[in-house]
Structures are given as C-alpha cells and as structure tokens.
Amino acid sequence: MKTTINISDDLLVRAKQYAAEQRCPVGQLIEESLQRELQRRLHRSASDKRSIRWVTVDGDPPDDLDMTSREALYDWLGRNP
Prior knowledge:
elongated, 3 helices, single chain, 58% helix, 81 residues, mainly alpha
C-alpha cells in the first residue's frame, strides 16, 4: 500500500544512504524498521504487565490512619503534598 509520511530531510538522507549501503529500497528499510519497533514495544509492554508483583500482608491499617482523606494520609506519612 502506498502512503505519504513526513520526516525530516536529514533523517531521509540518512535512511537513503543506509538503504543504498544495504542494497535495499528505502521503503523496505522503513517497513522493516517499523516492524521491529512495533514488535519491541509490544514485547516491552507485555513484559511490563507481567513484572508487577503484588505483596499482601495480614493485618489492618493503624487506627490513627485516616484513609478517606489524601491530606490526612500525607500528614500521617509526615509529608507535605
């Protein structure tokens, strides 16, 4: 499929030089590069989702902790928002 994209002149010159060195069309270079980047991002986002580890402990929050108010929570933690 044909499409039009806007990229900087410098990037296009560098892409054309690299494509010529690799003896491939610049369109192929762009398509393969985009495929790699999308795969990398997909893999990274999938691995990020698996990296969360929930930690739970038995017990209740302290009696003097008011969890209905963000300001009260900050005060309890000794921090200013």
